[in-house]
Protein: Electron transfer flavoprotein alpha subunit
Amino acid sequence: MTVHTPVRRVDPRRPAIITPAGLRRIVLGSSEGERLAANLSHGPATKPVRSAGPFSRTTLVVTHAERGALTDGARQAIAAAAILATADTEVLVAVLGACQDDAAALGVDRLLVLDDLDSSRYQPTACVRWLQGLQTRHSPTQWLFADSGADGQLGRRFAVQAGLDLICGVVELGANALRVPANSRQDWLRPHAPVMLLAKAVASTKLPFVGLGLREAAPALPAAIEAGIEDLGLKAGDPQTLALEEADFILAAGNGVTDLPLFHSLALEVGAAVGASRVAVDDGRFARAQQIGATGKTVSASGYLALGISGAVQHLQGIKDCRHVIAVNLDASAPIARRADLTVVEDSAALMQALLGLVRKQKEGV
Ligand SMILES: Cc1cc2nc3c(=O)[nH]c(=O)nc-3n(C[C@H](O)[C@H](O)[C@H](O)COP(=O)(O)OP(=O)(O)OC[C@H]3O[C@@H](n4cnc5c(N)ncnc54)[C@H](O)[C@@H]3O)c2cc1C
Structure:
């Protein structure tokens, strides 16, 4: 293995668009490339199927579903598999847990879903044996996992147990080679390994094609004895003490939020971490560590509820990796509305009050 002299390169993790020719193009000066491209396309264009087979090889992507959906990391790993797949390679995805996502749109040819996984049990040995069963059935040439959380752990365990070569933290994946960081200035260039764990944003999920999208029930999890493991159960983390970068759900306040006790009650009730715009921080309503944006934190929550935030470009930079953004603003033309997946034109206090009432009612089972 050799360390190459640093090669100047554009950050592969920058947002990009996929051109009609299938090329990944970085939109210079914009952090909104993919979103703009998506907005520019008029109506849902029909995409071609990547390959109808027959398949003689398999790339298997393995992931845990979260609340019925795939994580961003898993979607990116699937996209990477689909982009690199040759016409005779099937993109097979094995999901631990129920999954309602549109498999074809994600580039999946066949989705194996383990619907009845009891995610409250810690059972790594059973999961590894389950993967060994898939290995026997499908003989994949490559295994891909997102290098984060439960997926990263499972990938490492499986590779060790199966005696397969493993590469972690892959930041760039090409057809024949990949890159993993060597130090702050250099990357290792390496050939592929049978098991690869992919870092965040290794591939754009905006694919110019779809997969076959077949769906099958996966074989049951084997009843393995978890020797040497005492399962003490799950305990909910406290989102208020969680680093904002780690939070899955963030309630963020801007200048349009004045009722702070109401805001904090809502955050507590829905179990959200608290973030704020710079104006709200400068005003002394929130701590500097809670500021989100270019001069604050960059967050990647799957849910971001922006209350009374205008959506200045500096703020948007901090939420570019968030999956679902919901904006609440009195002004329907505020810039945040262009970034948001849903905009509620409403007074922030009125909406917080209504939401708090709903959540409390639901908790009481009314
Ligand atoms: C170098 C530099 C770095 C910066 N870095 C950051 C950064 O990291 N993070 C950041 O956030 N900003 C940053 N800023 C500041 C940024 O440009 C904006 O000024 C700031 O984000 C605006 O905050 P805001 O949206 O909360 O406030 P405002 O711009 O005042 O917007 C308030 C919004 O709330 C809405 N509103 C008002 N009342 C209500 C109500 N009752 N109910 C519902 N909606 C209501 C309004 O319609 C408006 O859209 C930076 C600026 C510079 C120059």
